[in-house]
Amino acid sequence: MGLVKREQIAGMNIHYMRYSLEYFLDAQVRAGIKTIEFWTGVPHYYLDPMVYGDCKELKKKINDRGLEVKVFTPENCMYQFQFAANKPLIFEKSFQYFSNGIKAAAELGCKIMQCNSGWGYLDETREEAWKRSVEMLSRLAEVAKKEGITLALESLRPEESNLVIRLEDVKRMIREVNHPNMKVLIDTTAMAVAGETLQQWFEVFGKDIIHMHFVDGNPYGHLIWGDGYHNLKEFLTVLKDNHYEGYLGQEITDSKYFKDPMSHDIRNMEQFSRYI
């Protein structure tokens, strides 16, 4: 049953953070994955406000294995740089960090870089932080325009942010940034935590949805398909009915997968195989 193309399924390296880059790439080949959404965490890649890793070397390692990197995802939840940073120095360092991410994405041949709203301090008003997020994303969208990149904005869970956590928040942020180089990313975990559905997102954003973090959940978890309660066939049917042809990033973040990530990626692809 052809509900998804193999090339749409984008393996990610977050749950390989205790393994080398080479091990991750070889595991993707073993699992039958063709496409990569590249997360920039150490030890796989170095990115900071001043410098970033050798993209030619990284791209060669990826391409030599018959893989292609299509989406670039700078680390922005665990490390110090975020899109609504409070202190002016950290705000500017964050801008430089994400700008370097955009430039690295362009060098790798990606067309999409993931982003989110960041978060505000809990002892300030939400609107203060919201304004900083709009400013940051507006400035980064201009950098993205120069580099031929489109930013893909995702919602977060309430535990991660007090800014963009629902579909309506994404709608407002897209409207206020108002830039053709920022579109929409659906994270199925954040979506489900908010009590929303894929169809609702497609009804609001349509073709402006350019990427997904497409994982199982209960509703939390960022889980391998089959480990949560979402119905993969139903989800893929919604995508096909709405003519979605973007990538499905496998953003697997639960630490229970960290010890033996390859086996879980293989198991994940077995779930997809019946619909490819």
TrEMBL record:
InterPro entries attached to this UniProt entry: IolE/XylAMocC-like, Xyl_isomerase-like_sf, Xyl_isomerase-like_TIM-brl
Domain of life: Bacteria
This enzyme's EC code(s): 3.1.21.2
Residues covered by the Xylose isomerase-like TIM barrel domain: 29-256
Keyword Hydrolase appears in the UniProt entry: yes
GO molecular function, one term: deoxyribonuclease IV (phage-T4-induced) activity
SUPFAM superfamilies in alphabetical order: Xylose isomerase-like (SSF51658)
Root EC class: hydrolase
Coiled coil residues, start to end: none
Swiss-Prot/TrEMBL keywords: Endonuclease, Hydrolase, Nuclease
Protein name: Endonuclease 4
